Amino acid sequence: MIKRDAEFELRTLSGQFKAVVVIGPRQSGKTTLVRLVFQDKPYANLENPDIRKFALEDPRDFLSNYPQGAVLDEIQRVPELFSYLQQILDESTQNGLFILTGSNNFLLQESISQSWAGRVGYLFLLPLSLQEIGDLEMNSNQLIFRGGYPALYSETTEPTKWFPNYIRTYIERDVRQIKNITDLYAFERFLRLCAGRIGQLLNMSSLAVEVGVDVKSISSWIGILETSFIVFRLHPYHANFNKRIVKMSKLYFYDTGLAAALLSIEKAEQLTFNPFRGSLFENMVVLDFLKRRFNAGKPNNLFFWRDNVGNEIDLLIKTESRRIPVEIKSGQTVSDDFFKGIHFWNKMTKAEGGIVIYGGDMLQKRSNGIMTVPLREINKIKMD
Length: 384
Fold this sequence. Notes:
Helix content is about 40%, strand content about 15%. By secondary structure, the chain is an alpha/beta fold. The longest helix has 20 residues, at about 160-180.
C-alpha cells in the first residue's frame, strides 16, 4: 500500500472538526485512506444499492446505527442525509465523529450549507503525487503515461485497459448524475478536444465551434469536468505592470494518464516524438505543485502570467512575501531560451531568482539566482 502524504492532514482535521469531508476524483484513493486512518469506525458505502435505499427511505433510522460515528463513502449519493447529520453534529461534542467522502464537489457543496461552517473540515485528495509514487525508476514519459491513479501501480493493471473503462464509466454514469446530458457522443468529443488544449488559454467559442454546440453548453460542460475533478483551470495573475494582461484561464487535467488516453496515446514510448509531450509534461509539473498544496491542507496558490504580446511565465507560485516564477520545459538539455520568460519577469518586477523545471538530470544554481531543477528533484522546491 502506498503511503499518502495527506494522511497527516486528515488526522489533524479529525482532531479539530466534528466531521471531515474528503473529496477528489473517483479512484484517487479516498476510501483506502479513510479506512486505513479510521479502522475502528463502521463503514457504509452509499454506492451500494441496498445501503443507499435504506438511507434514502429512512435517513434518521439509518444514522441511528452509527451512534459513535462512521465513515460514509460517496455521501453525495444521498444528499438527504446532510440535514440529519447537521443535527447530530450540533448535539455532539466529539471531533472526528463522521468522515465523509465524495467524488463530486458540486453536489457536496450544494448539500453542505453554510450552517455547517465550523463543524466540517475539507481535504482534497488527488491521485498520487510524484513523491508518493517514489523512486520507481520511471522516466518522465512513463510518469505522464501512467498518471497518478493508485490502481495503476498494481502489477496487474494495464493503463490501456483501465483508462477506457474509466472514461466510459465517467461519461455514462457520473455525467448523468450531475446533469442529464442526452448527447453523450458530443460530450466525449468535447472531453477529447479538451485534452488537446492542455496548457492553452481556454477559448470556449473555439471549442463550441469544434464540438458543434453553443458556448453556453461548453461553459456548463467545463463546470461538470471541474466539479467531477477531471480538469482544473490555472488562473492568470492579475497584477498589471503597465501592460495588457491576458485574463483567460489555462486548462489542465487532474491526471496526465487520463489525458494521454483521451489523446489516443497507447504506449509511453509514443510520447518521445508526440506533439503533445511538452503540454503533458507541463501539466504534470503544475499538477504536482497543486497536489503538494492540497496534501498539506493548504489552498491553491498557483497562477500563470502572460501579456498581450506573448511574454509569459508558465507558473507563478504566490507566497506571503514573494512571487516565484517557474518555467517548465520538457527538454533534457538546458538552453538560453529556457530563461527568457524569467529574465523578462525579473526585469519588469525588479525581482531576482526563479526556477526552471526541465526533463534533464542536472541541478544547477546560476549566479543570477535562477535554478534549473530536474523533474526528479521537484520535491526539493519550497512553495512557502
